[in-house]
Amino acid sequence: MANLKNIDRSAANSNKAVVISGAAVILLFFISLSIGKFRLSIWDILEILSGIHGNEMAVKVFFGLRLPRNIMALMAGMGLGVAGNIFQSIFKNPLASPDIIGVTSGASAGAAFCIVFLSGGIFAITFGAFLGGIIAISFVIGLVRLSRTRDIKTYVLSGIVINAISNGTIMTLKYFADPEKELGAIEFWAMGSLGGITLEKLSKVLPFFCAGIIGIYLFRWTISILSLSDEEAGALGVNVGQSRFLILLLSTLTVASIICVTGLISFVALISPHVARAIVKRNSFKATLLSGLLGSILMIISDCLARSLLYSELPVSIITSFIGAPYLAVLVGRKRWSMGEKYESQ
Amino acid sequence: MRVNKVTGGYPGGFALKDISFSVDAGKVYALLGLNGSGKTTIIKIILGLLEAWTGNIYAADRDILVMKERDRAKIISYVPQYSDIVFDISVIDVVLMGVSPYLKIFQTPGRKYIDRAYYYLGILGIENLAHSNYQVLSGGQKQLVIIARALLQNGRYILMDEPESSLDLVHKNMLMRKIRGIAKDYKKGCLISMHNPEYALNFCDNIILINDGLVTELDLTAGDMSVIGGELSKIYGDIEIVEYGGKYFIYQSHIDMA
Amino acid sequence: MKIKFLSLLAVVLVLIAGAGCLSPPAVEDKNIGGGRISDIGDTSIADGSSSQSGQQVTVTDHLNRSVTINKKPERIISSYYISTSALIALGLKDNLVGIEDNAQKRPIYSFVAPDLLDLPSVGTVKELNLEGCIALDPDLVVLPIKLKDQINTLGDMGITVIGVNPENQELLNEMIIMIARLTGSDRDSELIDYCNMKENELQGIHKESKDKPKVYLAGNSDMLKTATKGMYQNELIESAGGVNVAGNIDDTYWATISYEQLIEYNPDFIIMASNAEYTIEDILEDRNLAGITAIKNGNVFKMPGQFEAWDSPVPSGVLGKIWLANILYGDSYSYTTFVDNVCEFYERFYGFKVDTKELMADGQP
Lengths: 346, 258, 365
Description:
The complex is a heterotrimer of chains A (346), B (258) and C (365).
Chain A: H1 9-33, H2 42-49, H3 56-90, H4 98-101, H5 103-117, H6 122-147, H7 152-176, H8 182-191, H9 199-218, H10 220-226, H11 230-235, H12 240-262, H13 268-280, H14 285-308, H15 316-333, H16 340-344
Helix pairs in contact in A: 1-3, 1-14, 3-9, 3-12, 3-13, 3-14, 5-6, 5-7, 5-8, 5-12, 6-7, 6-12, 9-12, 13-14, 14-15
Chain B: E1 2-9, E2 15-22, E3 28-32, H1 39-47, E4 51-59, E5 62-63, H2 69-75, E6 76-79, H3 91-96, H4 111-123, H5 139-153, E7 157-161, H6 169-185, E8 189-193, H7 197-203, E9 206-211, E10 214-219, H8 225-236, E11 238-244, E12 247-254
Helix pairs in contact in B: 4-5, 5-6
Chain C: H1 2-21, H2 25-28, H3 34-46, E1 57-60, E2 66-69, E3 76-78, H4 81-89, E4 96-100, H5 108-112, E5 121-123, H6 130-135, E6 140-144, H7 148-156, E7 161-164, H8 169-183, H9 188-206, E8 214-218, E9 225-226, H10 232-239, E10 243-244, E11 255-256, H11 259-265, E12 269-272, H12 280-284, H13 293-296, E13 300-302, H14 317-328, H15 335-350, H16 356-363
Parallel strand pairs in C: 3-4, 3-6, 4-5, 6-7, 8-10, 8-12, 12-13
Antiparallel strand pairs in C: 1-2, 9-11
């Protein structure tokens, strides 16, 4: 074929980027297994894994806390990175990540609601987070329809409104909740932390997370079609309303399954897709995959810092915010991303 | 394709009443009419993006109005004014989107479709752009990419919404020639909404004229130019058609603003 | 692109390596091997005089969990200032291996043993570093019940952990007894008896009083936050012979009221919480409050906080009651008595001498 002369550089580059990031995630995952307050060297871990470690407590800490926590960091980064890219693609706006448009805070309000009123069951909290996220998403879709623009302003505005409503809900809950019990849980949880992840929690949210991610993977082609205008996607044989709803449902499920145990994690879902697209230069499924991998890298590093900078736990969002907020400022400032006019005209 | 007594449009808004016309494979049709006459509405109704309240549209012996969008997309392809893609994307990926109606749920295009996508890019002479970023292409190149997508979609009919509107003169002519070539070579029925009747006269086989909700079908291959000029004058004001060097030019003798 | 990406990767690795190095050395030095556990075993055998050695003790904590300990705990963690203070009062300060965050804000630790401040901090009332806790290889962990999740997790890992909820005098006493039983300390009854004795002494002062003074207790962050019926602070006011003006608010947490409400209460005394973020002058000069009896008479006082927050249910809380009794009934209960009590209490239970002169000076208006 004649076009073989035309070497597909971007595809080759994106393959390379995915392989390198994948390797980095695996490497970081194993390094991070040895980081934590309980001293476990790489050698200890190898002994534990081969079942010959003599210290029972070390084995318990490794399997009960360290490993689940690291898996959760990996999962959280992956899920937020993937969901971030999908939200941005489907809403056709580079800033429309779940944290900016308010899905994350909607989910957190939903979860807080369940913490207080259904006191605690992890299934109830996941469900509450999921429901909160769905309500937030419906609101965003409604607002975008109402204003008839996909301008950044619409998304930021919807984010402000949903954040305000969520904060109001959380404050109301705090006010009426038994202050001796749930208050602390809600407060720390609002800042995000992987400090409380245990094998039990992980195993409970894992099915939801996997359902979301596998669903997203299966629908990857439809997702790429949905990055077109509704008319074009419809003319290409896609039932736009139905498939968009289904895919947003899957993405929200993924986000909800993460934040119902970790609390709010900011910026990962925003910056991972950007960096991924900057590397791959094409918004293909590879970019989504790379976004997930970069999210994992970001989360693993942030969580390692969160658990080792001070003796006590730092909320992980403090670290992701310090990395993410300046990046967001740069993005907003850059002309290419503040292209409101072009979309307003439609 | 036969559009038969179709009434439809925006719920509670603009609507067309009782529209009928035919589009045959292998011919190029110009859809002419002033702004607001309903050109886009017709295209959207045929695509199933707007609802037809009464009437039917037969294509390939079936009423496409009652079809699922997947099945309809196998018969009718669409080339919008410009494709609204926000993120960087490879040209080949844009073209490949055309196979969507043929994919099963959860399936992605295989080698067979990828080869065919390259083939159509080759037909349109833009094979070298296959791995370029769609976002940085010129308007004319973008249109060709979308036409390649429509070809891959393999509908017997291709609907185009003012495809040349954002192009310069050179590219307008180039694009219209390519569209005509495709219609003839691949036996596609092309329905193109446009503003400039000159292009209709020079590149199309038929004109479908909409004026005040009334449709007039004009056959350019058989028709008398003076009759056609008379029909066009009904909507464009007093115009004269001049033939020079095998081409038609339109000269506006008097502008009636009323 | 490649270079950009590799440099990104390099940054990533440097960060990770950095994170590894940042772990506090105190933890790095610790050896969790089997050797240490047998060391502890030896110690408790050598310490065989203790009646608890080798004996099982079971208590029910404030989460209704049944907790059993098999040997006298040598390494204790507390992530709540009230339980930490109780551990000190029970003579267990040398057994503490980890305490709550922001311990430097609690002056009592510097008086008792400044090296307590060098102990690793394991968390706050809201968050606990689970691994950090386990890494300290504790025999007993005392946590507030807000950390219910973490308590259950630690329990599942085989760590002996109790949840405590010292929100009033009764729960505080329960906690003290609970800890004493688990640790084999015999000082609990002495401490509780002392407090009960003082409590009765105070009862004697105001038992006959028909017209008890109205007290308004202003909260730490805002003078319009006040202690409600279900709080320890309500007990504190009543023990000292006052009437809590906000005692009709049936709640268990600080309530926010309005200026109008405060004027309506018209308290005889305004007492500021020991960690109040505003000054006595702020209240005296607040024009909105000008007509209130307490302000007209200059009866605005701040609970002393140079040792502990006596307005919270700490073991030394009885000193706060005594201080307030002196404010309310200065004629029959002198400031000197209060100072004597402070000296006696801390010398007896916390083992340090109080600078009497300084404390006396504080009492001079």
